[in-house]
Amino acid sequence: MNVETMKKQGVQEIVKRFETALLGFIEDAQNRGVEINRSDFEQLVVRAASVYAKNYVKAHGFIQIFGSRKLSTIASIYTPQRFQAHTAIRNFESVDELEEAFSQDLQRSNHSKGNNLVGINIANEESYLMVLGYPANGKTTFLKYIGWEALRYPNGKYKHDLLPVFVPMWKFCRLDCSRDTLLGAIAEEFERAGFLNPMDITQWLLSQGKLLILIDGLNESALPQKYISKHLQTFVKKYPLNRYIVSSRLVSYQNSLGQFLEVDLHPWSDLLIQEYIHKWFALRDAQDGQNPQADHVSEEAQRCWEILQHNRVARDLANSPLCLSLLCLLCDRRYSFPSHVSGLYQQAIHLVLEEQVLKCQSLDHPDRNIINTDILEIFLIEVAYTSFELNQTVLSLEEVMERLRIVLTNCKPSLQNLDVDFALRVLQQVGVCQIRNVLDSPIGVSSLVFSHITFQEYFTARYVYYHQKTAQIVPIYLSDRRWQQVFLILAGMMLGNPETLLLAIEAQAANYINTAKLRDILDWVDQVSTHTSNNFKSVTKRIATLFIARPRFTAQLASALILTRMLSVANELHKTLETNISFEQIFAADLSLSLAQALDFDSKTELNLATQLCQHLEQALSPLCFDRQYIDFVSLSNNLKFLEFQVPSHDQPYEVHEAFRNEISKIWLKSLHLPVELNQISYQEVESLESYLYANLLMVQCKDMAIAVSTKTWQEIESRMLQRFALN
């Protein structure tokens, strides 16, 4: 069904669905003492439902492909995406939350989801779905596609008769934290459509389980992730009959949503990349007013695909739908492909700005003819950095226009007469940002929003580079996962001196090791890793040894989980350097032991899990060939087996089981010659250790993103990673 057919036929179907969903609402209101005129109410529902459908299609049924002048329907560009189950470690605020998530996982394990899940299928199967992925890899497009299919019920591919409500994170987070923010954001959508008593209608629809709630961009929250996660869990428990799909970047998602199934977006296969390229060129011809000729489209798409095949770097970039669109644009305009993502954004954005400015300069208007790409780029850089630093994704148009006026006053006199309104319209036509009027704005006034947060991150990185702010932002934002992409893009921009960024990260990382206990851990890791006989790099030896030093048998569940998650960061760091060791079984054993302690499993189970962990550590780390004077897993295993004769029975008091757990801990520390106070590590120290490892991982990723890095400088940095001497 195309959009025109939707307007003529589908709206009536949606009106009927609203009427059905609101059956009983008047009676419920009257029971609460609220008088509603039935005739007036029914007429308002017809009008408001029609407006809601049109508003939804206008806001979420279209997508603007960068570089195009017109919007495309979401169905015309969407390429079926696949997922795999996500298994990373999350934070839980309580044992009750952990048990709930564990119970949900057990139920799902009865019908394993597998690792090649079709997006629409998993959306139909799961009531609570968490979609995770890397930047710009299609999370928003997926949510919009599912919402589009739900709106078209029963003709769509979404098989549940639910009314979709799309809630971008800026609407969720802009409301007063003391209020039910998600409820307010949903009610606002119905209020905009003209529904009578929108808050009451929202609560009715939620209580009846009539909504599909699509929450996009959890990582873009201006509020703490812990608060947002808790708020969502509370909301879902209050209104469990509805279905929910939430999206977030992987790196930002650290607090579990409990009962939600977590899935990762797959990287695109060659087949999907070719399909998307074909759709892109077909839409290009259609938007240019041409009748897309199948042979011509296929020829152009095939040419683009063949160029990608011969350019390995560009082919790797094509795994992101946004980047693939930019690559198609450059190919269509006969431009060469850059060698990194920073260059891709710069080249594509500058190209479209130049084209749009050239069109504007042909107009017979003096204030418009002076517009140029330099002014527009300076403005975008200023606005992006100012808003990103304040954790804003939406800016009031009044503030934006004032910022542009300030930019113009700093320009030479011949450029200061530029029509500000006209400049903003040019930027919107380019597709980098969008201007929303009062009715469509999420902040109640006319506003400007970047069309994709990656564009905001790109221009933020440009500001940092041009204004030489690297040394200033690293100490402030290094541990903030929201700034990860800014640092990576920045590394690609620094063609002459990426070493300054790497050295700044290294210096700040050292500050996270800020207690004697943390220094002792790295001291032990450094000392033990030197007593191995293998050809691994020194840094990879230290990373592997950290898996032994990881504090265990801690009393707090939150600390145990974040310690396991910390090792997942160490694992990612290991993968960027070498891939000779697999830590997967260690992860599983560590998590099982932590859960057993948190849930007070019986002593025999805890001893068995500790023994299994010992075995997995020995097997996984055997390539390191530790000196048995320093690491002796055989001795540890024998000492743990000796405890089998001392396991307390089930009817023994709690204090006896607690003493037995402490005995396991003592044997573990003594047999492996670990620091005695290792398991008394505080939660703050655990967070600092994770931040330290994340900083090292980001440093390696920035090095990989950079075009050229001094071999000598990098070898020196790498030799100091996870080493106590680097902290002096």
From TrEMBL:
Record Gene3D superfamilies: P-loop containing nucleotide triphosphate hydrolases
Domain NACHT conflict system C-terminal helical: 636-723
Superkingdom, taxonomy of origin: Bacteria
Entry-linked InterPro entries: NCH2, P-loop_NTPase
Protein name in the entry: NACHT conflict system C-terminal helical domain-containing protein
